[in-house]
């Protein structure tokens, strides 16, 4: 997992670490510290947890795993374009 992308997506969504954790199903008493540890790269969440984060943050799951930053941003843009309402 590319840890700084989690923080970037969270801040773009204007969520605190605690709020993101709780919305992703982490117990409120540990949500802030766990998300902080994930964002700092101290620990890596399992794929299921990352899927919950992706759903809450409205990003594709793969966004957190793509090594190339430019490609990750293109995937994110494509994801959002595919979710846009059709005219």
Automatic annotation (TrEMBL):
HTH cro/C1-type domain boundaries: 6-64
Q: Name one Pfam family in it.
A: HTH_3
Q: What is this protein called?
A: Transcriptional regulator
Gene Ontology molecular-function annotations: DNA binding
InterPro entries in the record = Cro/C1-type_HTH, Lambda_DNA-bd_dom_sf
């Amino acid at each position: 997992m590319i840890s700084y992308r989690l923080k970037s997506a969270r801040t773009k969504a204007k969520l605190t670490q605690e709020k993101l954790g709780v919305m992703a199903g982490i117990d409120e008493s540990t949500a802030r510290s766990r998300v902080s540890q994930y964002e700092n790269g101290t620990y890596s969440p399992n794929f299921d947890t990352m899927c919950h984060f992706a759903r809450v943050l409205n990003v594709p799951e793969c966004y957190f795993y793509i090594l190339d930053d430019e490609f990750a941003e293109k995937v994110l843009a494509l994801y959002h374009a595919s979710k846009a309402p059709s005219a």
